[in-house]
Every structure is written in structure tokens, then in C-alpha cells.
Amino acid sequence: MNYILFSRSNCPLCEAMEDELRPFIDEFKIVVKRRYIDNEPALEALYGDKVPVLTRDGEILCHYFLDVDVMKQSIHGAP
Fewer CB within a 10 Å sphere, N or C end of the chain? Predict the structure, then answer.
């Protein structure tokens, strides 16, 4: 599972989502890479007004706020 958190520098929502992800990282030993979109035109075009954006294997799971149910489903699979 490749999780990427697309974010910007000095972004309170991005920091909040990262904090909300911490229990999942600790409990399920997943890795979430943080990728800044600042100064990356292609990423800014994709995610600019939606950051933070959490993806798994290239699929958007949520943006702005962590969707806990979607995160759990992504880890455990469909119910």
C-alpha cells in the first residue's frame, strides 16, 4: 500500500490530517509519505485547491479532512 499525503508548506489542514493519520500509522504500521506540491506545477494543477489530499496507490481517498471510514476500509478492505 502506497499512501501519499499531498500538502503545502504552512498548511494547518495538512498538519491536522497528518496528526489524524498518526494512530493508523502506529497501529497498522503503514507508511504515509508526505509530498509537498509547492513549486511543482503539475501537482499544483491536480491538487492545488484540495490539499491536503490523501492517496493510496494513486487513488484519492480523501481531501481537506481525513475520512476515517474510508481509511479503515483502505486498510482492511471492503466490509
Answer: C
